[in-house]
Design a protein that fits this description.
alpha+beta; Phosphorylase Kinase, domain 1; Aminoglycoside 3'-phosphotransferase, Chain: A, domain 2; three-stranded antiparallel sheet; 11 helices; globular
Length: about 300
Amino acid sequence: MYPELVEESLEKKYGFLLDQVSVLRERPILRELSGGLTNRNLLIENSTGKYVARISSNSSSLLSIDRESEYQNSMLAAETGIAAPVIDYLPGQGLLVIGFIEGRTFSASDVEGNLSRVAESCHQLHLAPPFVRDFNMFEIQKNYFKIVQERGFRLPSNYQDFAQALAETKAALAILDDGTVPCNNDLLPGNFIDSGSKIFIIDYEYSGNNDPCFELGNIWAESFLDLPCLEELVTAYYGVYRPEKIARAWLLALVGKYGWTLWASIQDAVSQLDFDFWSWGMAKYDLAQSEFTSDYFKKAIKIVTEK
Protein backbone atom coordinates (compact mmCIF):
# COMPACT_ATOMS: atom_id res chain seq x y z
CA MET A 1 0.00 0.00 0.00
CA TYR A 2 2.83 2.40 0.87
CA PRO A 3 6.12 2.84 -0.93
CA GLU A 4 9.13 1.89 1.15
CA LEU A 5 10.39 5.22 2.46
CA VAL A 6 12.34 4.10 5.49
CA GLU A 7 15.53 5.92 6.46
CA GLU A 8 17.69 2.94 7.32
CA SER A 9 19.87 4.79 9.82
CA LEU A 10 16.76 5.72 11.81
CA GLU A 11 15.45 2.18 11.66
CA LYS A 12 18.74 0.82 12.91
CA LYS A 13 19.01 3.31 15.75
CA TYR A 14 15.39 3.55 16.91
CA GLY A 15 13.64 0.46 15.57
CA PHE A 16 13.76 -1.42 18.88
CA LEU A 17 12.30 1.57 20.73
CA LEU A 18 9.54 2.13 18.18
CA ASP A 19 8.62 -1.56 18.29
CA GLN A 20 7.51 -1.11 21.89
CA VAL A 21 4.54 0.97 20.70
CA SER A 22 2.03 -1.28 18.98
CA VAL A 23 0.72 1.36 16.59
CA LEU A 24 4.27 2.01 15.30
CA ARG A 25 5.37 -1.57 14.61
CA GLU A 26 4.23 -1.28 11.03
CA ARG A 27 6.25 1.56 9.52
CA PRO A 28 6.63 1.51 5.74
CA ILE A 29 7.29 5.24 6.02
CA LEU A 30 9.84 6.40 8.57
CA ARG A 31 11.69 9.68 8.18
CA GLU A 32 13.00 12.52 10.29
CA LEU A 33 11.20 15.83 10.55
CA SER A 34 13.16 19.07 10.63
CA GLY A 35 13.38 21.22 13.76
CA GLY A 36 13.81 20.16 17.34
CA LEU A 37 16.90 21.28 19.25
CA THR A 38 16.48 18.97 22.23
CA ASN A 39 14.98 15.90 20.59
CA ARG A 40 14.55 14.07 17.31
CA ASN A 41 11.14 14.01 15.67
CA LEU A 42 10.35 11.01 13.49
CA LEU A 43 7.37 10.75 11.16
CA ILE A 44 5.84 7.29 10.95
CA GLU A 45 3.03 6.60 8.49
CA ASN A 46 1.24 3.28 8.18
CA SER A 47 -2.18 1.81 7.50
CA THR A 48 -3.57 3.17 10.78
CA GLY A 49 -2.47 6.78 10.36
CA LYS A 50 0.40 9.26 10.70
CA TYR A 51 2.32 9.73 13.92
CA VAL A 52 5.24 11.70 15.29
CA ALA A 53 7.67 9.98 17.64
CA ARG A 54 9.47 12.53 19.80
CA ILE A 55 12.71 11.05 21.13
CA SER A 56 14.42 13.13 23.78
CA SER A 57 18.13 13.70 24.26
CA ASN A 58 20.10 12.86 27.39
CA SER A 59 20.58 16.58 28.18
CA SER A 60 16.92 17.17 29.07
CA SER A 61 17.35 17.40 32.84
CA LEU A 62 20.10 20.03 32.52
CA LEU A 63 17.74 22.16 30.44
CA SER A 64 14.87 22.16 32.97
CA ILE A 65 12.86 19.74 30.86
CA ASP A 66 10.83 17.15 32.73
CA ARG A 67 9.54 14.50 30.35
CA GLU A 68 6.76 13.33 32.65
CA SER A 69 5.48 16.91 32.86
CA GLU A 70 5.75 17.23 29.08
CA TYR A 71 3.58 14.14 28.70
CA GLN A 72 0.98 15.24 31.25
CA ASN A 73 0.80 18.78 29.88
CA SER A 74 0.58 17.51 26.30
CA MET A 75 -2.45 15.48 27.39
CA LEU A 76 -4.08 18.52 29.00
CA ALA A 77 -3.40 20.70 25.95
CA ALA A 78 -4.79 18.02 23.63
CA GLU A 79 -7.99 17.91 25.67
CA THR A 80 -8.60 21.56 24.82
CA GLY A 81 -8.33 20.78 21.10
CA ILE A 82 -5.31 23.04 20.54
CA ALA A 83 -2.59 20.34 20.49
CA ALA A 84 -1.92 17.01 18.81
CA PRO A 85 -3.50 13.93 20.41
CA VAL A 86 -1.17 11.91 22.62
CA ILE A 87 -0.94 8.30 21.43
CA ASP A 88 1.59 6.73 23.80
CA TYR A 89 4.41 7.50 26.19
CA LEU A 90 7.27 5.32 27.40
CA PRO A 91 8.47 6.77 30.72
CA GLY A 92 12.19 6.56 31.26
CA GLN A 93 12.86 5.84 27.59
CA GLY A 94 12.42 9.33 26.19
CA LEU A 95 9.63 8.46 23.75
CA LEU A 96 6.42 10.42 23.33
CA VAL A 97 4.13 9.52 20.43
CA ILE A 98 1.60 12.05 19.18
CA GLY A 99 -0.73 12.28 16.22
CA PHE A 100 0.46 14.11 13.13
CA ILE A 101 -1.37 17.37 12.42
CA GLU A 102 -1.99 18.03 8.76
CA GLY A 103 -1.25 21.66 7.97
CA ARG A 104 1.34 24.29 7.23
CA THR A 105 4.15 24.90 9.68
CA PHE A 106 4.59 28.61 10.31
CA SER A 107 7.54 30.81 9.48
CA ALA A 108 8.18 34.18 11.15
CA SER A 109 6.33 35.95 8.35
CA ASP A 110 3.34 33.67 8.91
CA VAL A 111 3.27 34.64 12.58
CA GLU A 112 3.40 38.31 11.61
CA GLY A 113 0.53 37.87 9.17
CA ASN A 114 -1.69 35.99 11.63
CA LEU A 115 -1.25 37.78 14.96
CA SER A 116 -4.93 37.85 15.86
CA ARG A 117 -5.30 34.12 15.09
CA VAL A 118 -2.16 33.34 17.07
CA ALA A 119 -3.62 35.28 20.01
CA GLU A 120 -6.84 33.26 19.68
CA SER A 121 -4.91 29.97 19.83
CA CYS A 122 -3.00 31.16 22.88
CA HIS A 123 -6.30 32.02 24.54
CA GLN A 124 -7.54 28.49 23.92
CA LEU A 125 -4.39 26.96 25.36
CA HIS A 126 -4.42 29.28 28.37
CA LEU A 127 -7.94 28.09 29.25
CA ALA A 128 -6.69 24.53 29.73
CA PRO A 129 -6.71 22.99 33.23
CA PRO A 130 -3.62 23.97 35.25
CA PHE A 131 -0.46 22.25 34.07
CA VAL A 132 1.43 19.93 36.40
CA ARG A 133 4.34 22.28 36.99
CA ASP A 134 5.22 25.97 36.83
CA PHE A 135 7.61 27.74 34.47
CA ASN A 136 9.36 30.83 35.79
CA MET A 137 12.22 32.15 33.68
CA PHE A 138 13.73 34.02 36.62
CA GLU A 139 14.13 30.71 38.48
CA ILE A 140 15.19 28.80 35.38
CA GLN A 141 17.82 31.43 34.51
CA LYS A 142 19.18 31.12 38.04
CA ASN A 143 19.39 27.33 37.71
CA TYR A 144 21.01 27.53 34.27
CA PHE A 145 23.60 29.97 35.60
CA LYS A 146 24.48 27.60 38.45
CA ILE A 147 24.95 24.72 36.01
CA VAL A 148 27.12 26.80 33.67
CA GLN A 149 29.32 27.99 36.55
CA GLU A 150 29.68 24.62 38.26
CA ARG A 151 30.56 22.80 35.03
CA GLY A 152 32.77 25.50 33.57
CA PHE A 153 30.71 25.95 30.42
CA ARG A 154 31.28 28.95 28.17
CA LEU A 155 29.68 32.22 29.25
CA PRO A 156 29.72 35.73 27.74
CA SER A 157 32.38 37.63 29.66
CA ASN A 158 30.06 40.42 30.81
CA TYR A 159 26.96 38.30 31.39
CA GLN A 160 26.65 39.23 35.07
CA ASP A 161 26.78 42.95 34.26
CA PHE A 162 23.02 42.78 33.80
CA ALA A 163 22.18 40.96 37.05
CA GLN A 164 20.97 44.18 38.66
CA ALA A 165 18.79 45.04 35.67
CA LEU A 166 17.29 41.56 35.88
CA ALA A 167 16.51 42.06 39.57
CA GLU A 168 14.94 45.44 38.79
CA THR A 169 12.78 43.81 36.14
CA LYS A 170 11.62 41.10 38.52
CA ALA A 171 10.66 43.64 41.17
CA ALA A 172 8.73 45.82 38.71
CA LEU A 173 6.80 42.87 37.27
CA ALA A 174 5.73 41.74 40.75
CA ILE A 175 3.69 44.93 41.32
CA LEU A 176 0.84 44.10 38.91
CA ASP A 177 1.22 40.32 38.76
CA ASP A 178 -2.12 38.77 37.68
CA GLY A 179 -1.06 35.16 38.18
CA THR A 180 -0.37 32.32 35.79
CA VAL A 181 -2.08 30.22 33.12
CA PRO A 182 -1.02 27.04 31.28
CA CYS A 183 1.60 28.15 28.75
CA ASN A 184 3.75 26.49 26.09
CA ASN A 185 6.69 28.86 26.84
CA ASP A 186 8.62 28.00 23.68
CA LEU A 187 6.56 29.26 20.76
CA LEU A 188 9.01 29.42 17.90
CA PRO A 189 7.24 29.89 14.56
CA GLY A 190 7.69 26.19 13.85
CA ASN A 191 5.56 25.27 16.85
CA PHE A 192 2.48 26.70 15.14
CA ILE A 193 0.69 24.54 12.56
CA ASP A 194 -2.12 26.05 10.52
CA SER A 195 -4.74 23.51 9.45
CA GLY A 196 -6.64 26.22 7.60
CA SER A 197 -9.41 26.49 10.16
CA LYS A 198 -7.22 26.63 13.27
CA ILE A 199 -3.66 27.30 14.36
CA PHE A 200 -2.52 24.36 16.47
CA ILE A 201 0.24 24.65 19.08
CA ILE A 202 2.74 21.79 19.39
CA ASP A 203 5.82 20.86 21.46
CA TYR A 204 5.24 21.04 25.22
CA GLU A 205 8.80 20.40 26.46
CA TYR A 206 8.95 23.67 28.39
CA SER A 207 5.25 23.89 29.17
CA GLY A 208 4.13 25.07 32.56
CA ASN A 209 1.97 27.59 34.34
CA ASN A 210 3.34 31.05 33.59
CA ASP A 211 2.48 34.69 33.06
CA PRO A 212 0.57 34.89 29.74
CA CYS A 213 2.68 37.91 28.85
CA PHE A 214 5.75 35.67 28.78
CA GLU A 215 4.01 33.59 26.13
CA LEU A 216 3.12 36.64 24.06
CA GLY A 217 6.55 38.23 24.43
CA ASN A 218 8.29 34.97 23.56
CA ILE A 219 6.22 34.56 20.39
CA TRP A 220 7.15 38.08 19.33
CA ALA A 221 10.83 37.64 20.16
CA GLU A 222 11.24 34.25 18.48
CA SER A 223 9.81 35.66 15.24
CA PHE A 224 12.05 38.77 15.45
CA LEU A 225 9.14 41.14 14.90
CA ASP A 226 9.03 44.89 15.51
CA LEU A 227 7.36 46.61 18.46
CA PRO A 228 4.09 47.44 16.62
CA CYS A 229 3.62 43.69 16.10
CA LEU A 230 3.94 43.10 19.83
CA GLU A 231 1.36 45.81 20.42
CA GLU A 232 -0.98 44.15 17.93
CA LEU A 233 -0.51 40.69 19.42
CA VAL A 234 -1.06 41.80 23.02
CA THR A 235 -4.05 43.94 22.07
CA ALA A 236 -5.62 41.02 20.18
CA TYR A 237 -5.07 38.74 23.17
CA TYR A 238 -6.63 41.10 25.74
CA GLY A 239 -9.23 42.55 23.39
CA VAL A 240 -8.26 46.12 24.29
CA TYR A 241 -5.11 48.24 24.20
CA ARG A 242 -3.19 47.58 27.44
CA PRO A 243 0.11 49.50 27.54
CA GLU A 244 1.13 47.87 30.83
CA LYS A 245 0.66 44.40 29.31
CA ILE A 246 2.62 45.36 26.19
CA ALA A 247 5.50 46.57 28.36
CA ARG A 248 5.19 43.43 30.48
CA ALA A 249 5.41 41.19 27.41
CA TRP A 250 8.44 43.14 26.16
CA LEU A 251 10.25 42.81 29.50
CA LEU A 252 9.47 39.11 29.81
CA ALA A 253 10.74 38.56 26.26
CA LEU A 254 13.97 40.25 27.35
CA VAL A 255 14.20 38.01 30.42
CA GLY A 256 13.73 35.08 28.07
CA LYS A 257 16.58 36.15 25.81
CA TYR A 258 18.85 36.54 28.83
CA GLY A 259 17.90 33.08 30.13
CA TRP A 260 17.97 31.27 26.79
CA THR A 261 21.57 32.49 26.37
CA LEU A 262 22.52 30.11 29.18
CA TRP A 263 20.38 27.34 27.67
CA ALA A 264 22.54 27.69 24.57
CA SER A 265 25.73 27.55 26.63
CA ILE A 266 24.62 24.24 28.16
CA GLN A 267 23.58 22.84 24.80
CA ASP A 268 26.86 23.96 23.25
CA ALA A 269 28.66 21.79 25.79
CA VAL A 270 26.48 18.69 25.93
CA SER A 271 24.29 18.34 22.84
CA GLN A 272 25.09 15.74 20.19
CA LEU A 273 22.97 17.53 17.58
CA ASP A 274 24.71 19.14 14.63
CA PHE A 275 23.80 22.74 15.44
CA ASP A 276 25.78 25.87 16.36
CA PHE A 277 24.21 26.51 19.75
CA TRP A 278 26.82 29.06 20.78
CA SER A 279 26.12 31.38 17.86
CA TRP A 280 22.39 30.96 18.43
CA GLY A 281 22.83 31.92 22.07
CA MET A 282 25.09 34.88 21.37
CA ALA A 283 22.49 36.28 18.98
CA LYS A 284 20.02 36.17 21.89
CA TYR A 285 22.56 37.75 24.19
CA ASP A 286 23.40 40.57 21.79
CA LEU A 287 19.71 41.47 21.69
CA ALA A 288 19.44 41.25 25.48
CA GLN A 289 22.43 43.57 25.96
CA SER A 290 21.02 46.17 23.61
CA GLU A 291 17.59 46.03 25.22
CA PHE A 292 18.80 46.18 28.84
CA THR A 293 20.71 49.36 27.97
CA SER A 294 17.97 50.94 25.84
CA ASP A 295 15.77 53.90 26.70
CA TYR A 296 12.72 51.67 26.21
CA PHE A 297 13.87 49.43 29.07
CA LYS A 298 13.58 52.33 31.52
CA LYS A 299 10.22 53.28 30.05
CA ALA A 300 8.88 49.73 30.24
CA ILE A 301 9.98 49.34 33.88
CA LYS A 302 7.84 52.38 34.69
CA ILE A 303 4.84 51.40 32.56
CA VAL A 304 4.43 47.90 34.08
CA THR A 305 3.82 49.42 37.50
CA GLU A 306 0.97 51.64 36.33
CA LYS A 307 -2.56 50.38 35.73
